[in-house]
Amino acid sequence: MAPKYLVHFPKPLLEDLVNGRWLPVVGAGMSLNAKLPPPAKMPLWSELGKSFADELMDYSPTSVLDGISAYEHEFGRARLIERLVELLHLDRVQPGSAHKEFCSLPFDIVCTTNFDFLLEKQYDMERQDNRTVHPVVDEDQLSINVGATGTLLLKLHGDVRHPKRLVVTEADYDGFLTNYPLIATYLSNLLITKTAVFIGYSLEDPDFRQIWQVVASRLGKTRRMAYAVMVNAKPGDIARFERRGVKVVNLPGTRERSGAVLAEAFAELREYRREHAGPTLKATEEGPLEQFLLPRDAMSRLCLFATPLDVLPFYRENVFPLAEAAGFVPVTAADVVNLGESVSAKIDTLIDRAAVMVVDASSSNTQFELGLALARAQETGERPNRRRLEVIPVVTEFSQLPTPTLGHFVIERPAVLSEDSPFVQDLGMHLQRLADGMGLAQRQEPRRLLEAREYRAAVISAMTLLETTLRQRLNKAPRDAVRRPMSMRQLLDLAREQGIVQENFGRISEWTKLRNDAVHTGRPVTRNDAKLVVEGVERIVDRA
Predict the structure, then answer these.
(1) Which CATH number fits domain 6-32+94-275: 3.30.450.20, 3.40.50.1220, 1.20.120.140, 3.40.190.10?
(2) pLDDT over 90 for what percent of the chain?
(3) CB atoms < 10 A from the CB of 309, how many?
(4) Which pick of 53, 248, 366, 476 has the fewest CB atoms within 10 Å?
């Protein structure tokens, strides 16, 4: 199905998304799509102010903030917070479809001015039993390293669980920069390097406007453009945003359908990011780099390994060669540099591009990645040429799996690893079975890409097929003796000795150069060149 809302997002904003440079700022409007039993509904900021004003005697507030401040003065802060809990339905409200799709986007940091816990609830549901959202309310939390996994949720205005930290009255707003200078500085620093994207936000909060002005005064015209995602915005609202340096992404729809519109838009953004994120990954070795350059719907040979650092050398030495011998291209997140700055985006892209993922679930970080992989394996997308992601959980007797692994081949390994462990042979044999199951589709993939006019991808796929075929035909060492498979040059020399590629040896060298130029220089590949390589490889493979 063709995207419906992507056309409304400027190209530079989409590029920032792909490169991990978005800083989402979620406001009260996002909560309108939350789920509540009828007739209850989440209030707008103005409706919240009216509810407080209606309970005041002989007082007509001039603004929402004035009404809330007067309410606190009249009845005290404890009663104010209790009333907020009631009006926001915090005891029964649940995230809606817009929250679900938003939380599927891989953001390292999300800011919110909301007092509720809808984002936390949805992130917890997204990752099932493995908590991966790290709410930050107080300044002393900024210095705590919560690890590379999950999303840091910066709650600028606090929440009702932290009454002293709540920013809800005039005095709270007036004292924000003075009382919380570290949070203000942290946010200002983020706005220097990231593109702020306001969602369900009115820009009326005085503290954020102060910080935005500080950034503007320091950077002037070099301040990054900010954007506001709105549904059916009025011309006056658009003009007000643009006067403050914020461009409006105005999505068609009605207020009643705003949650559904945002949900569809977030889903399209997620797929767009995954579709275009491959080239943002730069691998330290050529094999993975080639796979990143293939179209997203092409058959992949990537075998992604997620292991604790202390056992990674063992996997590289003993398991990676078995994956290569089976025809896969092993890679870890540490082998890849992300042109953007988002760790979450890199992991999401690697999982999206992998055919197989081996997860040693013996640490909290890899358990988190296992949860991501299992969730991705359940997704049904519009990629008919790609098989479902195969996930291989590796566990020890001490592992606590965060999610059910029903339907996946789980391998148990000893707590103390050794190269002669049956675990290594079992994992190697399973990788070979998976590779054998992919054989026919991989054999047809270069031809399919050629007919789809993906000429560079067709050449890369054909040469990978040739290397895999020769490796499986010639590299027949016993599995317990396999360490590092032969290089492509060694394979070609041995194949020529055995008469497999003797008459095509010179052509294969030309094809290899063409493939290398396509990978490393971005040189365009013509249809005729791609056709020669694909047809030549097909003839060799048929005889091998």
Answers:
(1) 3.40.50.1220
(2) 39
(3) 10
(4) 476
